[in-house]
User: Fold Leucine-rich repeat-containing N-terminal plant-type domain-containing protein from Prunus persica.
Amino acid sequence: MQGHGRCLKLFLAFALLLLQYAKGGEVDHSHRDTNVTGRCIERERQALLAFKRGLVDKSDLLSSWGSEAQKLDCCKWVGVSCSNQTGHVIQVDLHGLYSLQGKMISPKLIELHYLEHLDLGGINFIGIPVPDLIGSLTNLRYLDLSFTYFGGKFPSQVGNLTNLQYLALEANNFTNAENLDWLPLLSSLRYLDLNFVNLSNVYDWPEAINKLPKLTNLTLEGCDLPSPILFTLSYINSSKSLASVDLSSNHLSTSSIFIWLSNYNTSLVHLDLSWNLLAGSIPDVFGNMRSLAHLDLSNNQLEGGVPHSFARLCSLQSLGLSTNFLSGQLSKFVQILFSTCAQNSLEILDLSWNHLAGSLPDLTKLSSLEVLYLNNNQLSGVISGIHFSTLSKLRSLDLSSNSLVLDIHADWIPPFQLDYINLGSCKMGPDFPKWLQTQKKFSFLDISDAKISDIIPSWFWSLCRNVTFMNLARNQIGGTLVNLTFEFSYFPKLRLSSNQLEGPIPSFLSKTSHLDLSYNKLSGSISFFCSSTAMFLGFLDLSNNNVSGQVPDCLTYLTNLVMLDLSYNALFGKIPTTIGSVFGIETLKLRSNRFVGQLPSSLKNCTSLKVIDVGDNKLSGPIPNWLGVGLKDLVILMLSSNHFNGSLPSQLCHLTHIQILDFSMNNISRSIPKCLNNLTTLAQKGNPSLNISHFVYMMSNNNSVEAEYEDDATFIWKGRVYSYKNTLGLVKRIDLSSNRLTGEIPSEITHLVGLVSLNLSGNQLTGQITPEIGNLQSLDALDLSRNQIEGRIPTSLSRIDRLSVLDLSFNNLSGKIPIGTQLQGFDPSVYAGNPQLCGPPLKKTCADQIVQIDLSNQEDDKDELITLGFYISMGLGFAAGFWGVCGTLIFKRSWRYAYFKFLNGLNDWLYVQVALIKRQLKDMLNS
Ligand SMILES: *[C@@H]1O[C@H](CO)[C@@H](O)[C@H](O)[C@H]1NC(C)=O
Ligand SMILES: *[C@@H]1O[C@H](CO)[C@@H](O)[C@H](O)[C@H]1NC(C)=O
Ligand SMILES: *[C@@H]1O[C@H](CO)[C@@H](O)[C@H](O)[C@H]1NC(C)=O
Ligand SMILES: *[C@@H]1O[C@H](CO)[C@@H](O)[C@H](O)[C@H]1NC(C)=O
Ligand SMILES: *[C@@H]1O[C@H](CO)[C@@H](O)[C@H](O)[C@H]1NC(C)=O
Ligand SMILES: CC(=O)N[C@H]1CO[C@H](CO)[C@@H](O)[C@@H]1O
Assistant:
């Protein structure tokens, strides 16, 4: 939720624009006097026509602008208004005609000298600069160029428009404004919107604003505003009229901003400082803003509690303090806020995502409260119906992610009708909450993780007709999902995962946009989505159930599906060819079923696929070439534990985004392709994003909304089954183990410096381990066991500091195990089955008994982690014995690398001894 608010805001704005456009893109011109004819002045008509020629009007929105006889009166043209006295064009308002594009602005526009109102908001001028002539239209009182995507230099010529009262330049693509020196010239300005104009170099912006005596509304969202410098804060001449100030999404960090704002103590009504870097405690300054009705300080780094001065805010209607580091008892907050006057005015209180503790205090005085968000704090205690007894206006309630218990009498009749109910993680079981039956209007319901172990009552579903989101996950809700004959009004997002639901999946669930039924006991076939109502299904997770039968060949209905997970069920038969019609699919998981046959070739149409996991089935045939040709976006490809045969096609090397390639436990033969160095993601260290996330388009409330989901992947890692989600982006692995691969390990594999795990065990590989193996510096696990690899273990292997799992057993390796590193720290079994290997940690000594002591530091990169603290910790570690060392390493993971680096540097015989003792200790502990 955190951090998405802003995207949501932008998205909603965009959706609204679209909606307006969809409604015909018509502007309201009802105020225009349509009866007066023949007033249009020819020179101005020609200027307007020239202006039109500078636009691209594909949808013919300006069809009324023409030279034909019946169109002579330009005062009747769409968006044009003339003065009813002089006949001059005084207004051109094309706001909201979003399909218009601008190529240029005709210089003839200058003829519209009497123009007072120019609104081109939303016309895309694709980066051309604002022409200078704008500065000549000096009668302009209203200029709106927001969302016009003009580029070039900031148009400071608007400073010539001294009559301007309204100026909006939001969302253009100007280069940084160098100064606001032009601004004080606009002495009549009341409304100024420079949202998303880069003002990062304008340190004196508060001074420029102070010089506008009539300014009431100021919005500078996302301008990269620097904090004001104290000496630029002048109190003289400052405007006293500012009522609404939006400085959200900037870099404001110091208290100088509060000093500046205190100029406007008496006038401020609306103040938004959200998404800045404000730190420390909340200052007293707001308490002096007597008219303040809306205050938003959310998404900063504020600490402590609310100051006592807040008690003086008698007009406060909404207070947003979400996502800060506020702490203390919630009751203290409530006491201060509502001790006096605000208790009657406050409608919206958002204290979510802080560190507030204590129990829910008495809220009954807040009788005007409509929205209460206390989620994601550290609240505890028991809530009863009495807490809400007077809150008859409440419509949004979020208490989720605390440690609250809802102890509500079964007969409780709440005084409110909620629209938004989020009580996730509030314990309210074991019975299904009966009071929900009184709530007839909710569109959002989350009672996940609530310790409900009951059956969904029959009255429940009919209340859900209009939901857009419903989450009952992680309870013990049982029973069958009855096949109701109703349809959802919208296409809701439903999460019912991790419950005890049984029986077949009813067809009314097909009219959803997101359906998660994973981890239940559902059975029967999955034909419920064979219906045209499934067309908006974007996310479908049925994994870990008991559904069986064949996948019906009607995937053609799932035209918007992005994610399909049918893993861990009892499905069988072939993967239907209609999968090829799910063009937008990005994640396909069919793991652990009993699918047979080949991968359908229609899958190559699904060019958006990023994740394919069909592991643990009975699929057969060759690994198709088209995987590498058509599915270029693949990040994860898991075909393990099937019956695939043939060779590894060299086309796989085209998968430049691939991170996980798992073909283990098949019958793949021939050699490993040499072109592996083309797998560019694996050939890079690290990863810019930790997770692999996808956006799903969803329908809700007749609007489209995007939702996000993150991929996870489960596989065997160091001998255990692991699931990765939040850090999946860091997992880079190749697993070709347990096949019939032959030939040498291509040396190109050492280009894959991002690899974290490489498993080639259980094949028939020959040749030597390439001496460059040490290039794989990210490697955490290397398994080459059960092959026919010969020669010495390259010394470079000993320089992979992170290596924590190694298996070289059952090959034909020979010679001495390189000394001076953690290679001696591994259990001897990792070298077993190589009769000609010798040296520690093996008991077998080598023929040449001379132990080389190399004290030179091979690592030329210095490492700050090897600090005094590290040595001390090491010392303590050794003092405390083996577990002390381990404790240190487990405690601070980054130190583990430092530790191994340190040992590499040390690189002497002594260490070998220590390693041996350590291993013996370990053996002792294990036995
Ligand atoms: C003409 O303009 C005046 C002032 O702008 C306005 O009061 C009047 O209603 C207008 N007349 C018509 C017929 O629109
Ligand atoms: C702006 O005003 C100044 C001074 O009146 C004038 O010299 C300049 O030409 C004007 N610029 C534009 C673009 O009209
Ligand atoms: C904005 O300008 C930059 C640099 O001039 C350009 O790369 C970018 O594509 C422009 N964006 C839009 C939306 O025009
Ligand atoms: C200016 O701010 C006031 C106070 O917040 C608000 O009521 C008004 O709608 C704003 N005006 C515009 C044009 O946005
Ligand atoms: C669903 O919405 C419709 C239309 O807004 C309304 O008439 C109906 O009462 C609502 N039903 C429920 C259960 O909320
Ligand atoms: C007085 C006059 O011209 N009235 C006209 C105003 O416009 C409407 C609709 O265009 C006509 O129906 C009236 O006759």
